[in-house]
Amino acid sequence: MFEFLFKYPRDDYARSELIYTGDWPPWLLALLIIAALAGISWFLYRRRDFARPPQMLVVWVLQLAMLAVVIWLLQQPTLSTEQLRAGENVVAFVLDNSESMAYGESESRLQQAMRSLSATLADDSSLELSVQHYELADRARLVSSFLESEASGTGTSIAASLTDVLREARFSPLAAIVLSSDGADTTGGLSFSDLAEIAGFGVPVHTIAVGRESIPEDIELTDVMLPNRALPGSTITARVSIRHDAAASTRLKVYNGDDLLESLPVDLQPDTKNTTVWVNIKLADAGHHHIRFSVDGIPGEQELRNNSRSTLVEVADQKYRVLYFEGEPRWEYKFMRRALNDDEDLQIASLLRVSPNKFYRQGIESPEQLEKGFPTTRDELFAYDALIIGSVEAASLTDEQQAIIHDFVSERGGSLLMLAGPNGLGNGGWGQSRIADVLPVRLPPSTTDSFFRKKAAVVLTPQGADDRMLWLADTADANRVAWNKLPEVADYQVTGNLKPAAVTLLQVMTDIGQLPLLITQQFGRGHSYILASGGTWRWQMSMPVEDQSHETFWRQLLRALVAHAPSRVSLAASGDGGSTGVSLRAEFRDDAFRPIDDIGVTAIVTHQDGDSWSIDLLPSVDEPGVFQADVSPTASGNWYFEAVAERNGEPIEVARASIHYESGQAEYFNFRRDSRALQRLSEATGGRYLEPDELDALPDLLRYSSSGLTETNHRAIWDAPAVFLLLLLLKGGEWLLRRRWSTI
Amino acid sequence: MPKGFYSTLIAITAFTLIAVAVAWGQSSESGSSRAVREAPGEFQFVRLAYSANRYGRGGWGRRQMWQTDWPDAEHHFLKGVSRLTRVAAAEQGRILTPLDENIYDFPWIYAVEVGYWHLNDQEAARIRDYLLRGGFLMVDDFHGTWEWSSFVASMQRVFPDRPIVDIPEDDEAFHVIYDLDQRIQIPSRMFIYSGVTWERDGYTPHWRGIYDDAGRLMVSINFNMDIGDAWEHADWPDYPENMTALAYRFGINYLIYAMTH
User: Fold this and answer.
1) CB contact under 8 A, B256 and A337
2) Pairwise CB contact (< 8 Å): A334 & B134
3) Considering only CA atoms, which of B188, B233, B237 is closest in space to residue B73?
C-alpha cells in the first residue's frame, strides 16, 4: 500500500534524502506565495456576506493548503539515494571456522553459517558485488571459497581477524563485511577499544548469529580458582564454577596426577546457570602437582572436553615470618604460640614485655633479631609478612615506629592483627595513634575502659561462615556446628564503630548485645584485622586434648594473614587451558619494598620436555617495578618460567612461576552463542545483527551500504498517487463544505 | 515441759536450717562460679585442695596439708608478681579441688606438701587432662625419702609413662626472666631456730620436672625446699631476705615460663 501511494518502498524513503530539483528561483517562489495569499484573501473578503466568519476561515485554510501543495510540486521533490555502483564494489564474507563451529545437532554451526552466506548472494544477482571469502579463527585467512572450509581453528579472535580483513581491504572498495559466527571468542570478548578500532575503518559489519545461547544438554567447568603456590602439608581451597542451562546431577572429581583426591556429588539447580563448589585439597609433598578437576557428563552431553580443567600447583618450603609484639605475659600469648608450634611454615618471632624493663624474645632466628626491641627501620619490619600487636600501649612505640607500621600495611602489603587486652586497642591509645587509619574500626578513646574480663560466646557472621579461614570443619553445616560447640572466650573488648570497608567475620554475645569480634579491611596493598579478645585460649583449655579447634583457628588465621602479603620479588603466570596464551607479570622491590626500575628483566621459558627459550619483559607504564610479557606456548604440558632481573649485566633477583597449559582447549569452553557480542559489533560499525531467519534483509543492506564506491540515484516523487489524492481531497473537501453551507 | 515447747523448738530448728541453707547457697553462688565469671586479673594463684593420705588430712583444729602457708604465701607472692612483672595478677588467691570444673579456667596451679597428697584415679585423670591441655603445676614443700615416694605414687597415677627428670641448667624455666644459676636450698622458717636448711632426710634440694611431648615443662617439682614458706614469711624480719628473693624469682620464672611455653 505504501509503495502504491508513494511510488517507492518505505525503506527507500528511510535510506534516502529528500531534495528539490526545480529551477525556479526562490524570489519568484516567494512572490508567487505572497501574491496567492493576497489574492485568496482579497477574493474571500469580497464575498464575506455569503458565509459566516468561521466558515470563511475554513475555506481560506483549505485553499491555502491547496496552493502550498501546488507550489511544493513546482519545486519538483525528489528522493536522493546513495547506493553501490554496480560491479565496482567488494564485500567480504567472513566465516567463523573455529572448532566451536563444529557443534550442532542435525546440522553444525559451520553448515548453518555457510548456508546463510551462500544464500545471501544467490537470492539477488543484481548486486553485482565482488565477493572475498575469509575464514575467521584466531586470525583471518583469505580463501577462494568456503567449499572446503572445516571447523578447525583452535581459537577465536574476532577483533584480530576483522582487523586483518579491514587492513587487507584498505585499498579496495570494501562495501561491507558479513560475518557469520557463534560469537564465542576465546580471547575474552570484544573490548571497547577493539570495537573502536574496528569502527574506525568505517565499514559496516553485518553479523549473522548461528548456534544456541542455551544448551541444556551440556555442562561446563567454566573456572577453577586455587592458589598456584602452597606450603607443604597445607590445605588449599579450590573454587570450581560449573555452567549449566538446566537442572542436573553430576559428580566433581579432583585428581593429583593419577591419584583421586576427592569425589563430590553436585546438584545443579534449575534457578541458576552457574553453580560454585568449594573443594579442600591437601598437598603434602614439595614439588609441582598437576591437579585435574572433572565433572561427569550428563545424559545427552556431546561435548565432554569442557568438563575437565587442569592446573599446576607448586608446593614449596617457603617460610612466612610473623612478628608478635606483646605488652604483658598472658595466656593468649602462650596458647597462640602453642597452637602455631607445629606449623613449620610459619616462623613466629615474638617480643614480649615481661617486666617494665625487660623484653623476652621467642622464635628468633639469630641473637641479633629484635635485640633492640621493636623494629625501628622499614627494612627490619618489612622482612615480616604479618604483624600482631597485643595488649600494649601505643605510647610504647615512637611516632616513627608507628609510621613504619602504617607503611608496612599500606605499601609493603603486610597484614596487621591487633588483639584485645587491658592495654590493647582503645585502652592502649591506638585510636589516636599513627596507625588509626589502618584499622577497620574507629577505636574508643583510651579514657574509656573498653576491656571486659567476662566470658562471652562467639558466633559466626554470614561473611565469616563463607570465609574458609574460619572453617573448623569440611562443610559449611559442620563448620556451624563446630563453632556452636566452642566454649566462651575469656574476655572481650568493645571496638567502636566499623569503617565503611570493614567486614565483621565473628561476633561476641555480651550483656550489651552482639559486638564485633573479628573484623578486617583492606588498606592500601595490605590488610588489617582486629580480634577483640585475648581469651580464645579457653577453647584449648576447655575442650578435650584431642580437639584441634583452637589450633585450627590460629593456624588458618595466621596463614590467611601471611597469604595476603605479597613477596618482595614475584612472578605470576596467568592463562591456562581456557586461553590462547600465557601472560607473565614480574614485580621487583627492594628490601624496603620500594619498586626497582633500573633493571632489565628476561624470562627463561621452559617446557617440561626441556624446550627452552628466553623473552624480554617490558616495564609496565602504569605500575613501577612491574615487568610484563605475553608468551605463546608451543605445546601442552607444564611450563616453567624464571624471570631474571639484571643491573649492569649482573643478575640481582630471580622470580619463578609455573603453569599447566593445554593447547587447543580454548574452543571447547565458553562455546555457547554470544549474541550480545555480535550485536555490539554491528551496532558499533553501523551494520545490522541478523538471526538466520532475517537474511532477506541482507541484499538491500549491501546494496545501500554507506561504504565502498557509491553513486547517487535521483527519483522524482511529484507524480506519486498520494500527491494527487491529497489535491483531490483538499479541493473536493472545500466543494462539499460549500455545498453544505449553501454558499455556492 | 511448758506448752508449745516442742513446736517452738521445731520452728527454731527449721528456721535455723533454712537460714543455713540459704547462706550456703549464697556462698556457693558468690564463691567460685561468680568469681570465675568476672575474673579480676589475668593470672590467678590457684592452690590445689587435693585429697590427702591419712597423715595429711588435718582434723581436731589442725589444717589440712594443702592449706600450708595459706593465705600469706600467695598474698605476698601475688604482690611480688605485680611489682616485678607486667603480669596482671589478681590480688587474692583461689582454692580449687582437682575435680572442680573451673580448674580449666586457670592454667597455673600450686600444690604444697605434696608428700601427703593421695590422688585417686579420677583426680589423677583430671590433673593429667589439665596438664596435657596446657595447664602448669608447681609443687613445693615436701622433703625426704618417704614424702618423695608418697608424691611419686600419686604422680605416677597422673602420668604412668612420663618420667620425672632433673630440670637441666639451661632450661628456659631457669632463665625466662631471671637467670637462676644458684642452686640454694630454700628452707622453711624453722631454719631460724634450728639453723638447718633441710627437713627429715632431704639434705639436697632437687629441681625436677615432667615434660610434655614437645619438650615443654608441665610440672615443676621443688623437692627438699620450701619456697612457699619463703613467700609466706617475706615480711618476717628474721627470715633471710635473700631466701625470700630467691623464692620470688623461682616462682616468677615458673609463672612466666607457664605463660610463654
Assistant:
1) no
2) yes
3) B233
